[in-house]
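Q: Entry one of two.
A:
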Amino acid sequence: MTDPAINAADRDISERLCDQVRNAYETRTPLRIAGGNTRAFYGRPVEGQPLHMAEHSGIVSYDPVELVVTVRAGTRLSVLQAALAEHHQMLPFEPPSFGENSTIGGAVATGLSGPRRPWAGAARDFVLGTRIITQEGKLLRFGGEVMKNVAGYDLSRLMTGAQGTLGVLADISFKVLPVPTASHCLRLSLSLEEALHKLAELGREPLPITAAAWHAGELFIRLEGGESSVKATRERLGGEPLEASFWASLRDHTHDFFKYRDDPPLWRLSLPPNTDPLALDIPQQDIFYDWGGSQRWVKTTLDAATLREVCQAAGGHATCYTPQARGGAAEPFTPLNSVVEKYHRRLKAELDTHAIFNPGRLYAAL
C-alpha cells in the first residue's frame, strides 16, 4: 500500500522537520533520511530514526522564461517532470527514478545522472541553490536562483551526491532547459571494437548526440537538437529506428539486462572517455556500455578488490549496486585514500558533529 504522505501535492513541513532534527541533535539520535525509498539499495544500510521527507512536497516557484524552478525535496520526480513538460522544458541531467515514488530530493542526494550526462552535464551542474536543515535544526539558504549568484553555491554542490550525510535537503533550485525540437533514436549492428571506434570518431565532431550505448552487438544512439542537424546526422549514420523508451529503460534499470534477481551482483564502472575494454574475465553479454563507454554496467561474481584494482589502473572506479544482503560488496563505494578520507572526516565533523545524518551511508566511518 502506498504511503499517503507521498501523495501530498503541496505542503511545507519544514518546521516539523527542523524540530525533529533539533531533537536528534540534542539527544544524539541517528536519523535515516527517507523520501520515496526507491534508492535505498544505493550505498550502505542506515540504522536510525526515520526522517520522512515525502510529505514536504510541492513546486515553490517556477519561471519558464528564466529557466529556473524551485521545488521541495519530497516532491515526486514525475510531478516535477510533468510540470516542466507543460512548458516543453526538462531537467537536463535526466535523473534515474527507479520507481514511481522517486523524489527529487533523493535524485539530488544520490547525485545520479542518466544517459545524457556526458553531453549535458551532471546533476550538481544544474543545482543553483538549496535550503538545508543543519544539524542544529536551522533552515538555511545556500546559493540562489541564478547562475551568477555564487554565495554559498559550493555547499549546495557538496550536498549533491552526499547521500544526506551532511544535512537535510529541504528545497532545491534548478536550472532547466528546453526540450530539443527534434529527436531520433537509432541502432547499428556493430562489434564492440567497431562501436568504440565509431563513438571516438563521432565524438570529435559537433554532432547532436545526447546518448550512446552498446550491448550484445548493437550500438544505440540518440540524436537531439534542431530539425536540420538531427536529420542530416540521421541520414549519415543510417541504422534502424529505435524506440525512445529504450533510454528510460536503461536509465531506470527496467531494461531486460537489469531485471533478473538471480543474476550476479551489479556493478557500475566509471571510466575516462575512450577507455578500451578492461582486462576482466566477464562475458560481453554481462556488460552494458553506457555514456559512450565511460559508464559500464557489469554483472559479475568477481571480488571487489579485483574490479577496483583494474578500474583504478584505467583511471576510474567501481560502485556496487547490489546490496550486501543479496551478495553485493560490503563496501559499495571505492575506499578513500588516507588524504581524501581525512578531508571527508573533517567536513563531516564540521557539518554533522554528532553523526546524526545517515551515519555510515557512504562509508562505515562517515
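Q: Entry two of two.
A:
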Amino acid sequence: MSLKTDLPYRPNVGAMLFNARNEILMARRTDMPGAGGPIDQGVWQCPQGGIDEGENPRQAVMRELLEEIGTDRAVILGEYPRWISYDLPDHLIGRALGGRYRGQTQKWFALRFTGQDGDIRLDTHLPAEFDRWQWVAPSRLAHVNVGFKRPIYEQLIPEFSRLAHLPSSGATPE
C-alpha cells in the first residue's frame, strides 16, 4: 500500500457564495505560485475549510466564511446532495493538510451573500489564506485557474447555478 492510500480524507466544507448578480466569490491562495501578482495569475478557490470536532457542516460553512473572508453575511440556499472527495496531487501528499491526509471529503453549500463588498475582508485571518478576491460569472469559471480542483467546480456549477437564481428571501430551502 502507498502512503497515499494509508491516509484518511479530511472532513471539510466548501462555500459557493453568490452575490445578487449570481456571480461566485473566488479568492486567490497565498500559498500557491502567482500570489501577489496580477489578477490573472495564481490559484483561485471558493472558501472552504475543515469541520471542527462536534460541529455540523452547516455550522462549519458559516464559521469558515467568517474566518476566511471576514464575514458570514450569507444565507444557505442549499447543499450538494453528496459528499465530494478528492485526492491531493502526489507532490502534495505528506506536505499539504499537515501531512496527515490524502485529500478531503467535502460537503458543499450554495449561499447568497447578503452583505456589501466592503464586508469582505481577507486580513482577518492570520496568516491570510487569500490575498485577493473577485466575483466571477459561472460561465467564466472555466477561465479561472482553480488548479486540481477543477472537476469539483464543474460538478457543482450546474446544480448551484440553479439554486442561485432562487429569490433570496432569507429562508433556507430544505
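A: Comment on entry two: Residues 3-164 form a domain with the Nucleoside Triphosphate Pyrophosphohydrolase fold (CATH 3.90.79.10). Residues 150-164 form the longest helix (15 residues).
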